[in-house]
Amino acid sequence: MLMQTHEARLKALREELKRRDVDGFIIPISDEHMSEYVGDYAQRLHWLTGFGGSAGFAAVTRNHAAIFVDGRYTVQVRDQVDESLFQYRSIPGDSLGAWLIENTGNGAKIAYDPWLHTWRWVEALEEVVGPKGIAMVPATSNPIDAVWGDQPEPSNAAAIVHDNDLSGRPSAEKRAEIADWLTANDLDAVVIPALDSVAWLLNIRGADVSHTPVALSYVIAHKDGRAELFIAPDKITPEVTQHLGNAVSVRDRDQFETALGEFSGKRVSVDPDFGVVGIAQGLRAGGADFVFKQDPTILAKAIKNPAEQQGQRDAQERDGAAVSRFLCWLEKTAPVGEIDELTAAAKLEGFRREHGDLRDTSFDTISAATGHAALPHYKVDEETNIPIPPGSIYLVDSGGQYPAGTTDITRTVWINSADGSAQPTTDMKDRFTRVLKGHIQIDQLIFPQGTNGGQIDALARQYLWEAGVDYAHGTGHGVGSFLGVHEGPQRIAKPSGGQAGTSQELFAGMILSNEPGYYKAGEYGIRIENLVLTVEQDIEGAEGRFLGFETLTFVPLDRTLIEKGLLTVDEIAWVDRYHQRVSALIAPQLQGDDLAWLDRHTRPL
Fold first, then answer.
1. Interval 266-286 mean pLDDT
2. Which of 123, 267, 439, 536 has the most CB atoms in a 10 Å sphere around its CB?
3. CA 171, CA 226: separation in Å to the nearest integer?
4. Which is an annotated GO molecular function term of this record (predicted)?
5. 205: closest CA among 403, 408, 480?
6. Which strand (E) or helix (H) includes residue 393?
7. pLDDT of residue 448
8. Virtual CA dihedral for 458, 460, 463, 468, nearest 10 degrees?
9. What is the pLDDT of residue 353?
């Protein structure tokens, strides 16, 4: 019998926990690979609670339940999750350990799925609850799966070859570098569970996870250059078999846990951020000496080679034309007042598909009107969808997955009234221009080799700080090459608060977003996002190596929201140069009304 209500599902889970003789269970948004986006089969938190955000977790005991989300989802969780079933808890202020101590007691056994949590996560939680007599117990199988009657099966989509002319390097060369790394670190093998790392290393892609072109699989790479790929056999086509060659053996994904027991007496590396407890347990049970080290593909993957850099430029040109056509359509259509957020998002995806080669969106489009734009990670659906009112700010954050590259762009635009008389407020123009000034600071920055993202983040915020305001998200994240739209290890963000990646040195070849913003709760939000490529700077007389950024994203900025008087002469020149470049790249792809729109929006300030 299928359970249609979240109350019935919670009751069924509690009955299953009682049957297993445990007192509680932790439910994350996660899969066996610690992916950002997970397949439908792994959407256990959504099934149990109704929460549709991309980050958060729940804790369920025999008599209590809570859902933990960060500040991005404070509004969303209240819209989607029944407070009579789940208490709302905000992280990092509220801790899971403290909640467990408060709602269980000495001798309590709290289960967790060892394939959905890292060793580091479990250790940290045990340090808090262990002294209070609460034991963390790895479940032999996930109790949600036992009661989820219509749980989807994992995707059976075939893997595909990512050609060398797009990857820029053959897989054999990458595997040889991994072998050298293993030898240098006195290791026999490395377990690679992260799906994008597997895809990058073997030059394959897939369609198993929304927004990220990866195939559900694992790799174990050996110091002799061999690799074992664990993947469902039906996913392997003759083309993939030929591409992988003799040095990559293909084994059923179901054999992965068994394979972990084949390293008795061997030294094996696992990434602490992606290696779940189940992997460590399997290695330990088999007698392996396992160590935690960063996945050796992560930094190599982040530093794009010339072919990947050019692919990104090509993808951005195509994407820029699609987004420009959308903004032209929006400017003509929205003032009538008959366009809503979902319609706009669908129209934008349609323009991207018309320009060809789009394989997927790179994330759920943030199509946000009025107060919704003040939610940086807003996700529109049938329940939250609202009309885009004339005389208001509209924010659209979107991206596409193309074989040549992954795009991510945010534009904030003014929606005029039908008679053309509506004007943004002085406050709106002030905030938009301060965001733009910060964006320009990052774009034009020149910095010495050795600089990290935490050291430059304040430059994007300084003009907002002058006005006594700020934004709560990072300024920039890494982006993959036809892979994850959020890719580490680099990041531009405040160095405090444990922000991952802010201490990572920036290297030439890294792609980052440049996306400062401002959000006025309940009223409007502003964000300007382009992608940039880290490049070497040729400076006469330079004492050392210096880097800067090459702009990759080319779509007009909304001139209506710019307060020209707040810009310096140099900043005005930057805007004009940027729009000249937009025109040069995008105009050849447009015609008619779209071309006329582009011409108007790229004229000098």
1. 95
2. 439
3. 11
4. aminopeptidase activity
5. 403
6. strand 392-398
7. 97
8. -60
9. 96
Count of other CB atoms within 10 angstroms of residue 340: 17
Q: How many residues can be counted in the chain?
A: 605
- Asked if the domains at 160-301 and 306-601 fall in one CATH topology, the answer is no
The CATH superfamily assigned to 160-301 is: Creatinase/prolidase N-terminal domain (3.40.350.10)
Structure tokens at 2: 């299928």
Cα–Cα separations (whole angstroms), residue 285 to 121, 130, 280, 341: 20, 23, 8, 52
* Structure confidence at residue 500 (pLDDT): 59
The residues, any chain, with a CB within 8 Å of residue 22's CB and separated by 6 or more, are 109, 110, 111, 137, 139
In the chain, the percentage of residues whose pLDDT exceeds 70 is: 99
Measured between alpha carbons, how far is 504 from 540 in angstroms, rounded to an integer?
Answer: 27
Pick the CATH number of 6-147 from 3.40.350.10, 3.50.50.60, 3.20.20.300, 3.40.50.300: 3.40.350.10
Residues 6+ apart with CB under 8 A from 563: 426, 429, 430, 432, 433
Of 112, 51, 134, residue with least CA distance to 86: 51
Determine if the peptide bond prior to 92 is cis (ω within 30°). yes
Residues near 193 by beta carbon (within 8 Å), at least 6 away in sequence: 32, 33, 34, 218, 270, 271, 274, 275, 276, 279
Reported as a single tens digit per residue, the pLDDT across 180-237 is 999 999 999 999 999 999 999 999 999 999 999 999 999 999 999 999 999 999 999 9
- State how far the alpha carbon of 473 is from the alpha carbons of 267, 295, 386, 518, in Å: 39, 26, 24, 10
Give 278-303 pLDDT, tens digit per residue: 999 999 999 999 999 999 999 999 99
Return d(Cα 537, Cα 541) in angstroms, integer: 12
Rounded CA gap, 381 and 362, in Å? 17
| Overall average pLDDT of the 167-173 stretch | 97
CB 510 within 8 A of CB 495: no
The pLDDT of residue 496: 64
Q: Residue 112 and residue 118: Cα distance in Å, rounded?
A: 11
Residue of 513, 533, 557, 535 lying closest to 408 (CA atoms):
513
- Which value, to the nearest 10 degrees, does the dihedral of the CA atoms of residues 581, 586, 587, 589 take? 160
What's this model's pTM, rounded to 2 decimal places?
0.94
When computed from its CA atoms, the radius of gyration of the chain, rounded to whole angstroms, is 25
CA atoms within 13 A on the CB side of 557: 30
Lowest mean pLDDT among 2-6, 109-113, 172-176, 376-380: 2-6
Q: Is pLDDT above 90 for 381?
A: no
Structure tokens at 158: 């075939």
Can you say whether residue 432 is alpha, beta or left, with left for phi > 0 and alpha for psi between -120 and 50 degrees? alpha
SS (H, E, C) 546-591: EEEEEECCCCCCCHHHCCHHHCCHHHHHHHHHHHHHHHHHHHHHCC
Long-range contacts of 223-226 (CB under 8 A, 24+ apart): 223/179, 223/182, 223/183, 223/187, 223/188, 223/189, 224/179, 225/172, 225/175, 225/176, 225/179, 226/175
Q: Sketch the domain layout of the chain as residue ranges.
A: 6-147, 160-301, 306-601
